[in-house]
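Fold it.
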Amino acid sequence: MTRVDRWQRRCAALLFVALCVSGAAHAATPVELANPGMEPPYYAVNLDNGAISGYLANWWTENSSWAGATVQYSEDNINPHSGSASQKVVVTSVGTGRVQFYQPFQLQAGNIYTASVWLRGTPGTEASLVIQQGSPPYATYIQNSLALTADWQQLTATGYIATNELAYLMVAISTPGTLWADDFALSFAPGSFVPTPRIGPIPTSFFGMHVENFLESQLLNSGFEPPYVSAGVNNPISGSTAVNWYDNSSWGVPNPTVTYSEDTDNPHSGTSSQKVSVQTVPHNTLVQLVQSLTVIPGQTYTFSAWLRGDAEMKVNLVLQDNNTPYTYYADTQVTLTGAWQQFTTPAATVKDTGSLLLMFQAPQAGTFWVDDVQFTDASGAPVSGGVPWPAAKFGTLRLWDSGTSWTSLEPQQGVWNWEPLDIWVAAAEQHGVQDILLTLGQTPPWASANPDDVNYIGAGAPAPPTDNQYWRDYITAVAQRYKGRIRNYEIWNEPNDPTYYTGTVDELAELTAEAYSIIKSVDPGNTVLSPAAYAPGYLSQLLQAGIASNVDMIAYHFYETPPEAAAADIANVNLVMAANGVSAIPLWATEGASGDNTTVPESLAAAYLVRKYLVQLAFGSIRFDWYAWGKATTFCVGTEENDPRVLTEAGRAFGILLNWLHGASLTGASIDSSYTWQIGLTLADGNHALIVWNPNATVPFTIPAALHFVSQHDIFGNATPVEGSSVSIGGSPVLLMSHQQRWR
């Protein structure tokens, strides 16, 4: 078990009340599990028409049918860890998720829980021990994993719990193989956590941001120049499209048959044009070559291109909404000849979401070529950067989901597509962003160990490269091209999620070591971050693989609602780091958010965004990057309305938070017994200030007698005088100041 007293804490500064409780000083209390030794009797399991079958130890519950898995359970008496039996689990397929079985129990807040189980199985099979929320959204509170061997191993998972609710003690298997489980144990000891702020100046770089739609407002590769990349859809849809253009024909049943290719014989201009050879177009389908763009709703746009093709072939030029109900704003059918002709859609006013597809549609068989697209506004000027850069002056830009992954930059070996990353770097510099963090990885199909492993970034992207020399060449090219301009590199995004990474921990540790050596050789001042996990158990595996010797900072992702739930998650990360002897390495929260696009009202959304940054400040993260500046999503409150020129309350509140903290120093942080949060500051002008809020209730806050606050400021730009010795606070942070000032 991790010793909590190895996690050194700094209690808050003068005038702040801290809750300093250590779980190490208390004996563990066992949680009584039913049948922890997996002894008989066993009961029959038959789910999903027999895909999930066999016999499971009494008091344990199968929970894999949601994933469409194929698994067989059985009692095994040949080699139990102890007693007369162990649970055998043969996993043929994990379907769309994982195989898992569990037992429910009741959590008690304010404790450190330790769970353990003895496991053996097919060498290399990945297994996890999890304490998971017992109701939606089924949050993972504690987790650890290991690769099985033929011998029994004990897997232990430890972490803080800050909630009273039903939970599941669960074993999960994420890859096919055979597993045996025996001798579960579960206990808890009192333990809490206190803020651990980094006392001193708050750098502007602390305030990081992803920018969701800025690059998508740029028309890229309008001339269909190389490199060309695999269409990568399925057998009837094949060939290669010019980078930044892609096929969108696979929604039909059956799909059209079409082959894309680069043509260098007779481009309209430049070196290449896109050739589209359509063999079949089944009823109610269309061949569609597209590029997505984000524009401003209510504005008027025109789309034109040069085309040639088989005589009398029909092609449609379309501007279509990228979201349901897929409204057509412009739809112009043209008739081709063998000679290049320019065709233009009528001016169209875009409504709704502002998310567009520029589209070439083929409703019939034949061959056509396309080149030199133009996308113009109502005045006829080319649209470039129609979506504005964020109004808030954040300090760090993290590049992920930004068209800058390895598969985007090097779609063919040694053939580079620098345009997207060049645009990002130039825009950041133009708008005074101090630092750029580039997330590396996502393997192009030509380099991938498994080209058939496809995620939304591309074919082969989650797999490691077949040859590490490909990785070394990629890292070298990026680090050299952007020397002095990009100074921060994160090795991989969320490798604990098979959406993004399907290799082993050891392979990832090797890639990290290779990248660290190259990036530092190009510029010793560069900063290398670990692969960014969002599960403490996976971070533990990375650290056990020796990754800490090849990184300058630990990267981690925090998605919690409400934002204060991140406190327990940061505490668990710190426990893992302490257990592996790397507490001195700074923690950079490279991605995170709170809220959603449906259930959170505007005022609460603004509070969530501000509180997210403040919680990370209070618990010592060296930087935090909000995901993302743009419209609200299912996991993130938004900073912009559908019209990206119009900020939400959250977008405006972020700007006010930056104004509050610009040039300020952190003097302390605490949480009192009523769950009121306090952030102590010395402002840029030297005056003392305090940010306070209570996420649970509206409560009176008594102003410390030594502090003479005269004004209070909310996150919406309003200021009122302080009258008396207390103020009423709630879920929206308030800045208390010893002088008058107004922020907008």
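The helical segments are 406-409, 419-430, 468-481, 505-522, 536-544, 566-579, 602-618, 649-661.
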